[in-house]
Amino acid sequence: MTADLSQIVKAYDVRGVVPDQWDERYSALFGAAFAQVTAVPAGSGAIVVGHDMRPSSPGLSHAFARGAAEQGLDVVEIGLCSTDQLYYASGALDLPGAMFTASHNPARYNGIKLCRAGAAPVGQDTGLAEIRALVESWLDDPASAPTPVATPGTLSRRDTLADYAAYLRSLVDVSGIRPLKVVVDAGNGMGGHTVPTVLGDLPLTVVPLYFELDGTFPHHEANPLDPKNLVDLQGRVRAEGADLGLAFDGDADRCFVVDERGEPVSPSAVTALVAARELARNGGHGTVIHNLITSWSVPEVVREHGGTPARTRVGHSFIKAEMAATGAIFGGEHSAHYYFRDFWNADTGMLAALHVLAALGGQPAPFSTLVAEYDRYPASGEINSTVTDQQATTARVRAAYADHPAATTDTLDGLTITTPDWWFNLRPSNTEPLLRLNVEARDRETLERLTAEVLELVRQ
User: Fold this and answer.
1) Residue 148 class from Cβ within 10 Å (0-12 exposed, 13-18 middle, 19+ buried)?
2) Is residue 103 annotated as part of the catalytic site, yes or no?
3) Active-site hit among 103, 266, 268, 335
4) pLDDT tens per residue across span 179-227
5) What fold does the segment set 11-157 form as a domain?
6) Which of 180, 207, 351, 430 lies 20 to 30 Å (CA to CA) from residue 436?
7) Tens digit of pLDDT for each residue in 81-126?
8) Cα separation of 386 and 389, whole Å?
9) What does the similarity note say (predicted)?
């Protein structure tokens, strides 16, 4: 029987149901393969491993560590951490790393996010395909499975939380901010572990929501991209008369913002705000990366503040590659992933949150007033449609606008059609029979008309 890991080895990570699709035996093999494919050829004698609060995470991460140690690598186990805390450890220690998390997925899932030394990503084109092939070969022929080397590596424990928090605080000046009341929804995820240390001694009254670490997610999914998971935060911000609300996903690498009225703030607006601050910190110069479905506001603000915007495909591997290629100082996505040159080009929602708090606390206006400068155009948000044939449906939509006199078309990532008054992007899901639509326009009437028009073409 041939092992098939195609259902759990994705484009950027490993993710699947435990124990149905993978377990600790598999994890040990992934650890050995990571050592052989990624760490040893790069000359690394050690790796760093961390995990989230899911019930299966400690066992899976320790099995991975044993598998790597049996191939001669020393393993630094940092225990409970957020994904960006693991990236910090990989960068600060200059070691390859493995983070055990399934981010916002339901409790029965778990996964591994892998990186090279300095938090450089490991994806399908940068080692993950080879790791998968090696593990499959060992599962197919157990006799070929790796044997421990004569001198295995050591396992050691290290707490990096305080150092991670201090490093983030060194990148944003929050010394002069005014007192603020902030509601933080950790969604029973790793924000409950990191927020008290990162924000602990700032002039903030933090109102905690769901800080108890619980990988069964008893209150709501730890996925703030879904509006229903923001409802509790919105209500609490209004009830408390708070200045701001912050919501983190399960592994706390993404941060969503709610203003003082309880209204969600577009991640594009947060991208533009942070871009302006990072450009100011870098003397009004630098490249800022944005994916192709962030708002028109982002490149506009970047240019207004002296920077150079660079457009890329959706997805962290593309953003990080472009960050490295251009030397960009910052990058942002519509999904609330924020990337910083000074954080090894990796994404950290916590650093974006510090920027937001510094911006709000450094002036007297409410956040809704402050952010209006960066939130200029109405947008649809991402709308998913199930289709039987992604290519044929996309072709039908493209044909419908082929003769539009003012439209330009590009296919960098799916189909993007742009006019002076509006744009939309239609891109396929890599894992489901879905097309994802994003629309933006100069006014709400045009937005609503165009959104309905494109959806009718998609769903007919």
Assistant:
1) middle
2) yes
3) 103
4) 999 999 999 999 999 999 999 999 999 999 999 999 999 999 999 989 9
5) Alpha-D-Glucose-1,6-Bisphosphate; Chain A, domain 3 (3.40.120)
6) 351
7) 999 999 999 999 999 999 999 998 999 999 999 999 999 999 998 9
8) 9
9) Belongs to the phosphohexose mutase family.
